[in-house]
Amino acid sequence: MLPGLAINDAHGHEAGDDVLKHFARFCRGRVRAQDHLGRMGGEEFLLLLPEVSLDDAPRIIDRIREGFPPAVLGHGELELPCTFSAGVTEALPDDDRSSILRRADRGLYAAKEEGRNRTKVGFDGER
User: Fold this and answer.
1) Would you say residue 36 has pLDDT above 70?
2) Mean pLDDT of the chain
3) Catalytic residues
4) Which residue from 57, 36, 58 is spatially nearest to 47, judged by alpha carbons?
5) Distance in angstroms (rounded) separating the CA atoms of residues 42 and 39
6) From the CB of residue 71, how many other CB atoms can be counted at a distance below 10 Å?
7) Which residues 6+ apart lie within 8 Å of 96 measured at CB?
8) Does domain 4-121 have CATH number 3.40.47.10?
9) Contacts for 63-69 with beta carbons within 8 Å, 24 or more apart?
Protein backbone atom coordinates (compact mmCIF):
# COMPACT_ATOMS: atom_id res chain seq x y z
CA MET A 1 0.00 0.00 0.00
CA LEU A 2 1.07 3.56 0.08
CA PRO A 3 3.98 3.61 2.48
CA GLY A 4 2.37 3.25 5.89
CA LEU A 5 5.04 5.25 7.64
CA ALA A 6 4.33 8.18 5.31
CA ILE A 7 0.62 7.99 6.14
CA ASN A 8 1.40 7.69 9.84
CA ASP A 9 3.81 10.65 9.72
CA ALA A 10 1.50 12.87 7.71
CA HIS A 11 -1.88 11.94 9.18
CA GLY A 12 -1.25 9.97 12.38
CA HIS A 13 -1.33 6.31 13.35
CA GLU A 14 -5.12 6.23 13.45
CA ALA A 15 -5.22 7.18 9.76
CA GLY A 16 -2.66 4.45 9.00
CA ASP A 17 -4.79 1.91 10.86
CA ASP A 18 -7.89 3.10 9.00
CA VAL A 19 -6.16 2.55 5.65
CA LEU A 20 -5.23 -1.00 6.67
CA LYS A 21 -8.83 -1.68 7.69
CA HIS A 22 -10.02 -0.17 4.39
CA PHE A 23 -7.71 -2.55 2.51
CA ALA A 24 -8.88 -5.61 4.47
CA ARG A 25 -12.59 -4.78 4.01
CA PHE A 26 -12.10 -4.14 0.30
CA CYS A 27 -10.24 -7.41 -0.24
CA ARG A 28 -12.69 -9.49 1.79
CA GLY A 29 -15.48 -8.23 -0.43
CA ARG A 30 -13.69 -9.45 -3.56
CA VAL A 31 -12.55 -12.95 -2.67
CA ARG A 32 -14.38 -16.26 -2.42
CA ALA A 33 -15.68 -17.74 0.83
CA GLN A 34 -12.94 -20.41 0.74
CA ASP A 35 -10.12 -17.84 0.37
CA HIS A 36 -8.28 -16.65 3.46
CA LEU A 37 -7.03 -13.10 4.09
CA GLY A 38 -4.83 -12.28 7.06
CA ARG A 39 -2.45 -9.59 8.19
CA MET A 40 1.14 -10.79 8.48
CA GLY A 41 2.27 -7.68 10.35
CA GLY A 42 2.98 -4.08 9.56
CA GLU A 43 1.60 -3.40 6.10
CA GLU A 44 1.83 -7.00 4.87
CA PHE A 45 -1.17 -9.19 4.21
CA LEU A 46 -1.41 -12.80 3.08
CA LEU A 47 -4.16 -14.03 0.77
CA LEU A 48 -4.53 -17.79 0.34
CA LEU A 49 -6.39 -18.81 -2.82
CA PRO A 50 -7.08 -22.57 -2.63
CA GLU A 51 -7.53 -24.39 -5.93
CA VAL A 52 -6.26 -21.40 -7.96
CA SER A 53 -3.43 -21.94 -10.45
CA LEU A 54 -0.26 -19.86 -10.57
CA ASP A 55 -1.47 -18.59 -13.96
CA ASP A 56 -4.79 -17.36 -12.54
CA ALA A 57 -3.62 -15.97 -9.19
CA PRO A 58 -1.89 -12.85 -10.59
CA ARG A 59 -5.01 -12.00 -12.60
CA ILE A 60 -7.16 -12.28 -9.47
CA ILE A 61 -4.78 -10.07 -7.49
CA ASP A 62 -4.57 -7.57 -10.35
CA ARG A 63 -8.36 -7.30 -10.47
CA ILE A 64 -8.35 -6.48 -6.76
CA ARG A 65 -5.38 -4.11 -7.10
CA GLU A 66 -6.78 -2.22 -10.08
CA GLY A 67 -10.13 -1.70 -8.35
CA PHE A 68 -8.70 -0.58 -5.01
CA PRO A 69 -10.34 2.79 -4.26
CA PRO A 70 -8.89 5.70 -2.29
CA ALA A 71 -9.29 5.55 1.47
CA VAL A 72 -11.75 8.17 2.70
CA LEU A 73 -10.94 9.15 6.27
CA GLY A 74 -12.19 11.56 8.89
CA HIS A 75 -15.88 11.57 7.93
CA GLY A 76 -15.02 12.30 4.30
CA GLU A 77 -12.55 15.08 5.06
CA LEU A 78 -9.49 13.29 3.70
CA GLU A 79 -9.15 11.06 0.63
CA LEU A 80 -5.90 9.14 0.30
CA PRO A 81 -5.12 7.41 -2.99
CA CYS A 82 -3.99 3.87 -2.21
CA THR A 83 -2.01 1.34 -4.18
CA PHE A 84 -0.39 -1.96 -3.33
CA SER A 85 2.21 -4.32 -4.71
CA ALA A 86 1.86 -8.08 -4.49
CA GLY A 87 4.10 -11.11 -4.68
CA VAL A 88 2.43 -14.34 -5.80
CA THR A 89 3.58 -17.94 -5.62
CA GLU A 90 2.12 -21.43 -5.41
CA ALA A 91 2.44 -24.05 -2.70
CA LEU A 92 4.41 -27.01 -4.03
CA PRO A 93 4.20 -30.53 -2.55
CA ASP A 94 7.55 -30.35 -0.69
CA ASP A 95 7.13 -26.76 0.52
CA ASP A 96 7.07 -25.61 4.07
CA ARG A 97 5.67 -22.26 5.16
CA SER A 98 9.09 -20.58 4.97
CA SER A 99 9.74 -21.53 1.35
CA ILE A 100 6.30 -20.37 0.25
CA LEU A 101 6.65 -17.03 2.02
CA ARG A 102 10.21 -16.60 0.69
CA ARG A 103 9.01 -16.95 -2.91
CA ALA A 104 6.06 -14.62 -2.32
CA ASP A 105 8.46 -12.10 -0.78
CA ARG A 106 10.72 -12.34 -3.85
CA GLY A 107 7.73 -11.53 -6.02
CA LEU A 108 6.82 -8.59 -3.79
CA TYR A 109 10.39 -7.28 -3.91
CA ALA A 110 10.38 -7.57 -7.73
CA ALA A 111 7.07 -5.67 -7.90
CA LYS A 112 8.51 -2.87 -5.77
CA GLU A 113 11.73 -2.80 -7.80
CA GLU A 114 9.73 -2.44 -11.03
CA GLY A 115 7.92 0.63 -9.78
CA ARG A 116 5.30 -0.59 -7.28
CA ASN A 117 1.54 -0.98 -7.78
CA ARG A 118 1.94 -4.28 -9.64
CA THR A 119 1.84 -8.03 -9.12
CA LYS A 120 4.84 -10.30 -9.71
CA VAL A 121 5.32 -14.05 -9.37
CA GLY A 122 8.13 -15.07 -7.03
CA PHE A 123 10.34 -18.05 -7.84
CA ASP A 124 13.20 -19.90 -6.15
CA GLY A 125 16.61 -19.15 -7.61
CA GLU A 126 17.27 -17.16 -10.76
CA ARG A 127 14.67 -16.63 -13.48
Assistant:
1) yes
2) 91
3) 43
4) 36
5) 8
6) 23
7) none
8) no
9) 63/30, 64/26, 64/27, 64/30, 64/31, 65/117, 65/118, 65/119, 67/30, 68/23, 68/26, 69/26
Give the pLDDT of residue 86. 97
Greatest Cα-to-Cα distance within the chain, rounded to the nearest angstrom: 50
Q: Residue 119: is its pLDDT beyond 80?
A: yes
DSSP SS3 for 54: coil
Residue 4: pLDDT over 70: no
CA-based Rg of the chain, rounded to a whole angstrom? 15
For residue 21, what are the CA distances in angstroms to 41, 42, 47, 115?
Answer: 13, 12, 15, 24
Strands 86-88 and 119-121: parallel
Convert the pLDDT of each residue in 58-109 to its tens digit.
999 999 999 999 988 877 888 888 899 999 999 999 999 999 999 999 999 9
Cα dihedral 90, 54, 102, 110 in deg (nearest 10): 180
